[in-house]
Amino acid sequence: MTGTEAPSYAQALAAARSLLFVPGHRADRFTKAAAAGADGVIVDLEDAVAPDGKDAARDDVALWLAGGARAVVRINAHGTEWFEADLAMAAAHGAPVMLPKAEDPAVLTSIACRTGGRSPVLALIETAAGVENAAALCRAPNLVRAAFGNIDLAAQLGVDPDDHQALAYARSRVVCASAAARLAPPLDGVTADLSADGPLPSDVAHARRLGFAGKLCIHPRQLDAVHEGFTPSAAEQDWARRVLAAGEAVTVVDGQMVDRPVLERARRILSAGGG
């Protein structure tokens, strides 16, 4: 990726409905993941890679990026022995980075300074400290978007990661922090159940109701349901067009008052729907 491409890629990440993880030690899967139809790919150097494979995986990712591939790199967490080398590699290729276990805004500020702004950052908020610091994290420089890590947070809290109620506070805090910082709505965490009749559709619907606008995915078969769930329906887009067609003055559409906040919602719906 060249320096001139970075801003447009940051915009694409801000609008993404899906980001698909691919293990950093599986170079044979990189190109397949990129062609799977996700809005973006995250090459994972953290949880997916065993400690004794970290260096080799980093080299494989660097080689792939050097060939012109475009992907987010989930680096290892700040304070680990691999953090510095991971960050340097991503920055050398102008690749966006996902920072796991984001807790300290100063770390995000340091990443922005050390990469010279070449690597847009996604903050993965997946600890209790990260949730409580969400507002400050979302105001960090060069942060393009926040993402919610339900699996790690649930483990720390001692709750079921599939329990919507148990994690509702944390999810809503990340959504509100993103909005307060004028970031794009955040990405929800993964659904680990890959079965055909699993909870993915209800997970997507729940996340969207809370204000998320996309989701982290772990398998290509999840993409269709995620894209459908985070794309406004035809009925929603029709309503939005009729609201905007009514003009800027306060009026009534479908028996409901339309004022500035309603107009803004209509614009967001059409933007998300590609209209």
TrEMBL record:
InterPro entries: Aldolase/citrate-lyase_domain (IPR005000), Citrate_lyase_beta/mcl1/mcl2 (IPR011206), Pyrv/PenolPyrv_kinase-like_dom (IPR015813), Pyrv_kinase-like_dom_sf (IPR040442). Keywords: Lyase, Magnesium, Metal-binding. Pfam families: HpcH_HpaI (PF03328). Its cofactor is Mg(2+). Signal peptide: none annotated. Gene3D superfamilies: Phosphoenolpyruvate-binding domains. The keyword Protein biosynthesis does not apply. The keyword Cell membrane does not apply. It comes from the Bacteria. This is HpcH/HpaI aldolase/citrate lyase family protein.
